[in-house]
Amino acid sequence: MRIAVPTETTPGERRVALVPKSIANLTQAGATVVVQSGAGANASITDDDYTAAGAEIAPDAASLLASADVTLRVRRPSTAEIGMLKEGSILIGMLDPAGDPAILHPLLDRKISAFRMEALPRISRAQDMDVLSSQANLGGYYAAILGAHKLPRLLPLMMTAAGTVTPARVLVIGAGVAGLQAIATAHRLGAMVEAFDVRPAVKEQVESLGAKFVDVGLSATDTETSGGYAKELSEEQHQREQEVLAARAREADIIITSAFVPHKPAPRLITKETVAAMKPGSVIVDLAAPSGGNCELTEMGKEVVKHDVLIIGAENLSTQIPAQASQLYSHNLMRFLLQVIKEGAITLDFDDVVIGDTCMTHAGEARAQDITALLAGAPS
């Protein structure tokens, strides 16, 4: 069984799907790992590092993919790259089919078994495979660092002979994995941190990290799904949270937003009127930009200044820390692969929720309702 690791081709992507540390586990399971030359360069991993770990090096993507039984990616391949895959082989990565439904027909035509890691179920057994959490954790850290870098003032309290510098105020909206890491990082940098989430259950986690929880008086029944995700709020509830956040935003030097509802556009929590009322020089880092943004004025992938406030439409911040992001992502994929490698061969048990929930295409057929819906509008 040959496992291929090609160079990522998405513009700006610096991660690699597998690092040398994970290779020994896969070779012990009976796999041969083949890495495209230069695939790890942006994550500071050389071809020699891979060969020392037991991998083979392929000179180009075409020869690599044509012979691979399993291909590991960070981001989805292009339709041209799918055309290089061995028919009937396996593709694993953060494939995001909704972002480009055009990949679906080629996957079906080549009978590729495609697994999207972002659909992994939130169960205890799958925690060490959870790519969304591992990458969001790093994204939250980098959001706090980026906000501090862009803010034209210091974050910590500083007492000097020339006077006292008061600490900056940071407001974190959304206390999921990314938000909690942003809270912890901003607090370590010396800022006064407040945090808001519609789920009252996260109050204890927020306060344990040194932040003050902003409560808008919503109950867990109103705001949280059985799986622990945020619910979409009623219009009245949404209006209430916007009012509370507008008041807190006026005092903030940095706002980091990471609020989202699964399979829905990101909730608009920072209106243009709220931005206009913020202090000049303030910074908004919008981690929800790929889903439409929590700020009304966010432009995805861009830094814009509106009403003297810098708004950063953050996109995949974890790729700005490629060495550590690749390390964590590689571990996630390795643990997933070890669920399906049996005696040196791939065995797919679709009754296993880890396998069944992540599979989007197999043997020329769609394996999920949303994929079937996407196919209806995808170019053939």
Summarize the structure.
The chain is α/β, with parallel strands linked by helices.
Characterise this structure:
The chain has about 375 residues and is an alpha/beta fold. The protein folds into two domains: about 1-120 and about 320-375, NAD(P)-binding Rossmann-like Domain (Rossmann fold, 3-Layer(aba) Sandwich), CATH 3.40.50; about 140-315, Rossmann fold, CATH 3.40.50. Helices cover about 35% and strands about 20% of the residues. It contains 14 helices and 19 strands. It has helices at about 20-30, 45-50, 60-65, 80-85, 105-110, 130-150, 175-190, 205-210, 220-225, 235-250, 270-275, 320-340, 355-360, 370-375, and strands spanning about 1-5, 30-35, 55-60, 70-75, 90-95, 115, 160, 165, 170-175, 190-195, 210-215, 255, 285, 305, 310-315, 340, 345, 360, 365. The protein has an eight-stranded mixed β-sheet. The longest helix is centred in the middle third of the chain and has 20 residues, at about 130-150. About 45% of the residues are buried.
Set out the fold topology.
Elements: E1 2-5, H1 20-28, E2 32-36, H2 47-52, E3 56-58, H3 61-66, E4 70-75, H4 79-84, E5 90-94, H5 104-109, E6 113-116, H6 131-150, E7 158-160, E8 163-165, E9 169-173, H7 177-188, E10 192-196, H8 203-208, E11 212-214, H9 220-223, H10 235-249, E12 254-257, H11 272-276, E13 283-286, E14 303-306, E15 309-313, H12 322-340, E16 341-342, E17 345-346, H13 353-358, E18 359-362, E19 365-366, H14 369-377
Parallel strand pairs: 1-2, 1-4, 2-3, 4-5, 5-6, 9-10, 9-12, 10-11, 12-13, 13-15
Antiparallel strand pairs: 6-18, 7-8, 14-15, 16-17, 18-19
Helix pairs in contact: 1-12, 6-7, 6-12
